[in-house]
Amino acid sequence: MGSSAASTSSALAALLPSSALPLSATASTTAPSPIHFGNQITVKLSAANHLFCRAQVVSQLQSHLLHGYVEGTFPCPASHVAVPATDSAPAGQVINPAYAAWIQQDQAILNAFLSSSSIEVGSMIMFAKTSREAWITIENSFAAQSSARSTQLRDQLRETHKLNQPMSVYYNKVKTITDTLASIGQPLRPEEFVSAVFHGLDEDYDSLAEVVQDRPTPIPEHDLYARLMSTEQRKEARRSTVVGGVHSANAAKTGGCDITLIEASSVREDEVGVGHDETENGGSSVASTSAVVVPPSDLHKHIADLQSDWRGTDTTIVVGGEEFRAHRWLLAARSPVFAEELLASPKGKKDSGAHRIEINDMEPSVFKSLLRYMYTDALPPVSTDDDGVATARDLLGAANRYKLERLKLICEDTLWQRIDVNTVAGILAAAEQHQCRALKAACMDFIVASPQNMKDVIEAEGFEEIKTKFPTLLTELVMKKSALIKAS
Hints:
By secondary structure, the protein is mainly alpha-helical. The chain has helices at residues 2-12, 50-63, 67-71, 97-115, 119-125, 131-158, 167-183, 190-199, 206-213, 221-240, 269-272, 299-309, 328-334, 336-343, 364-376, 386-401, 405-416, 424-433, 437-448, 451-459, 463-469, 472-487, and strands spanning 80-83, 92-95, 251-254, 257-260, 315-319, 322-326, 355-359. The chain folds into four domains: 2-143, no CATH class; 160-236, no CATH class; 303-345 and 353-404, Potassium Channel Kv1.1, Chain A (2-Layer Sandwich); 419-488, Alpha Horseshoe (Serine Threonine Protein Phosphatase 5, Tetratricopeptide repeat).
């Protein structure tokens, strides 16, 4: 009987987690000592710290190979096992040592849950018979609370708008809400965070939103914040230079006649008589659902077509000896710089209708891309080699010169994605020259990120431009590197 019980104990020992077995378990019916870890959980589980406390508990369970108890993958063994007949004893059943060991360990885990819970949470699991039962009760309870809290926070996020707040205040409000969502186990994906930020901004940020959301990979949060701040600064700078008082969007005077402009979205169906008319009997004389299909606007296509055949052109721009024909009204509408140059007539002189502009400090290929953008709102693909970076730099300068803000952002984004040890010096010089603060910050962060980066950039050919044209950047780099070293 003794040898039979010992062999049975040895066979059943394999059912237990190895960490729960003493070295003598395979040769003795003595149950292994349970593992206690409640004193290693440093905080009491409550509604406010569920995720943090859960992480500690899971870590302890996994480190001792005990997670199967609460997950249900290591269920309770049978309390008795059958023993085959031997020469000295008949067949029968004996107490299963694995059962006793399982019960001891499971109760030790349950005790750890109770001792590490607040009174509020402990009252929910005080009648649980197993650690798994207590675990499921806690998980289900906090899952329901997290779901309700998540819904509340997401509603709050949708209702958060910048309005007249500074960008820093608005951004921090959005960040606080999203951080709270993460703390309850409901984090936003990077693209969801970006969408949430732009949801609360007005149309002044649409161009930036289009550039950022068209990226193949989500933009890092610190980069997004830098670009938002840069856009806000440019917006405020433009507002401060507006001359002539407040411009009204719903009233203008032309030739002595008052013209009232009404947004289409603000006109109700009954105001314009479209839809249906009710008869005296309450019936409808016109079908309530129109069969007319209105196609999407193709205004942009027609404007782009003007560049193809140059019908009605009244302006010639000469760039590096090459002539480009264009429409004065379009140039003026797209660029405030062109508007000032083309629409301002000297006193006492009548507008002749034909205009000629000479640009001597720009490559024809750059102006060709600039003109194409002004007609089509798009650019040809920019190559990823050094020529592509040079083209993007030149186009950035042209966009800044003619105050084409969306084009400037497109060029910034293009250069941002091409930052490496060989290009960063030239890109940094362009960012400094054309007041691209976010792009400048990205370049400087890249340079000081590691000693190797700093060494490679200094040895690169483009760094000479920094030393000769923008020596103050050297001081900024040294200060930034020093601050980084102190912080670490």
